[in-house]
Amino acid sequence: MKADIHPEYREVVFQDVTSDFKFLTRSTLAASSKETIKWEDGNEYPLVKIEVSSATHPFYTGQNKIVDTSGRIDKFKRRYAK
Q1: Any idea of the CA torsion for 39, 45, 48, 51, to the nearest 10 degrees?
Q2: Which ranges of 1-82 does DSSP label H, i.e. alpha helix?
Q3: Which tens digits make up the pLDDT trace of 28-80?
Q4: How far apart are CA 26 and CA 32, in angstroms?
């Protein structure tokens, strides 16, 4: 591999802005972050703000609903039943 072409991979804090849920992980997005935050261990890390995380996504929170509008399954079966 070529040297000095890979982005820096380091620890970053991601914050869900809708629920104020934060988690510490490693990412290459640290270079694009202008903000920092003091984490529970006393160190400062780059902060990346996100709109959806596992704390607010409907699939993970149980808010996900499956709706069969106007019999789509029946319409499909009639169309392709030969």
Answers
A1: -10
A2: 58-61, 72-80
A3: 887 777 889 999 999 999 998 887 777 776 666 666 566 666 677 788 888 88
A4: 14
